[in-house]
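input
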Amino acid sequence: MENLFIKKNSNYKNISKFAGSTMISRILGYFRDMVIANFFGAGFYADIFYVAYRVPNLFRRLLGEGALISAFIPIYTDYLSHKSEEEQKKFLGSVLSALAIALCAITILGIIFTPFILKIITPGFINQPEKFRLAVLLSRIMFPFFIAIGFSALFMGILCVHSIFIYSALSSCFLSISELLIMFSIVPFVAQKVAIIWLSIAVVIGGIWQALFQLIPIIKQKIKMTFCLDFKNDGLKKILILMIPAIIGSSTDQVSAFVDVIFASWLREGSISALYYSNHLMLLPLSLFGVAVSVVALPNLSKSASFENFKELKKMLRDNINIMIYFIIPSTVGLIVLANPIVKLLFERGKFDTLATAMTSSTLQFYCLGLFSYACVKIISTAFYSLKDTKTPVKIAAFCVVTNVIANFILMKPLKVGGLALATAISSTINLLLLLYSLRKRIGKLGFFKKQRISNFVKVFISSIFMGIICSVSYKFFIWNKFLAFIIPIFLGIFFYLSLTYILKVNEIKFILNRIKAKISKK
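output
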C-alpha cells in the first residue's frame, strides 16, 4: 500500500511540477497575445502573421514535438533499461545527427516551396496578392524556427525519460519573451508591415533560446550526446519506423487546425485570427493537464510495456484519465460560461474590437465542447506509443481528418468560424471513441466503467455544472467591470468546485489534500 502511494504521489508530483511550470509559460503567452492583439487586432496583419506562423509550426507539431517524442521516448526507455552506457551514447549520437540532417533539409525545402504550401492552406489569399506575398515572406523568415524546436523536442524527450520536467515546461517562456521584447522595443516605432516582419524574426530567436535552455540540465546530468551518425543503429531504425505513422497519429488536432485555416481563409477577415486566439485560450487547460499528464505518463507507460506488464499499464492509464476528468471537465464548463469576459479582458483593446470579441468567444465555446476529447486522445495515444504501435492511431487519425473536413463543409455556412471549431470538436470525440475501442481490443478490458469510477465521474460532472451556475450568476453582478467580471467568477467557481468535490468525497481532491498535509508536516 505504501509503495502504491509513493508511486502515485510521484506521478502527481511530476504532473503538478509540469503543470505549474506550464502555467507560467501560458501566462506569458497570453500577455504576448494581448500585446499582439492590441497592435494588430484581428484583421489584415494578424491574419497574415498567424497563417505564416502556422506553416513552420505545423511541421514542428507533426515532425517535432508530436512524432519525435512519441517515437523516441519508448525506444530510449528500452535503452536505459536493457543496454549499456556505451550503446546509449551511440544511440543518442545517431538520433542527434539524423535529426540535424532532417531538420535542415526540411527547412530548406520548406523555404523553397513556401508559396506552394500557402496556396494549399490559404486558397482564399491567392486572389489577394499583397496579402499572399507578405505571408510567403513571413513564413520563410520563420521556417528556421522549425530547426530550433526540433532540437528542443529531442532534448525534452531525453529530460522526460530522466524525470526532469520543469526545464521543458518553462522553455516555451522564451518564445513569448522574445516576441514581447520586439513588441515593446521596435513595433511601436515602425509601420505595421515592418513590425510584423520583426515579430517573425522574434519567433526564430525565441525558438533558439528554447532549445539552448533545455541543454542546461542535460549538461548537468552528464548525459553523453555527440554527433555520431550511424544509420545502422537499431534504435534509430526503430524510431524512423515508428515516426512515419506517428507524424499523423500524434497530431490529429494539429491536422484538424490546419484544415480549419484552409476553410477560414474563405470566411470574413479576422476569422483566422479568431481561430488562433480561441484555440490558444483552449490550450491553457489542455497544456496544464492534458499535455502534462501525457508527457509524464509516457516514460512510465513505456517501462510497463517494456516488461509486458499490461495490468500496471492499464492501472496507470485509468489513474491518468481520472486526473484528466477532475481538471478538464470543470475547465470546459468554466471556459464555455466565461468565454466572453475572458476574451474581453485579455484582448478587447486597441484594434481588437467588440466584433472580434464576439467571433473569438463564440469560437472558443465551440472548441471547448471537444476539450475533454482532445486531452484524453493525448493519453490514449500515449498508451499506443508505449506499446510501439503507431499504426492504429494513424489509421484512426486519417479517418478523423476526413470527418473534420466533411463537418467543416456542413457547419461553416450556418455557424461561420464557430462551425469550424465545432467540426474539430466532433472529429476529436470520434477519435477518442475509436482509440478506446482499439486499445480494448489490443490489451483487454480497460476498467473505465467500474461502479466506483462512474460514481467519481458523476460527482465531478455535477460539481462542474453547479460551478458553472455560480460563475454565470456572479458574472452578471460584475458585468459593468471587465476585470471583476473575469476574476471574481473564476475564484468563486474554483472555490465552489473544490468544496463540492471535497463534500462528495471525490478521490482526486482527497489525494491532493493528503499531499498538502504531508508537505506541511515535513516543514
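quick obs: The chain has 21 helices and no strands.
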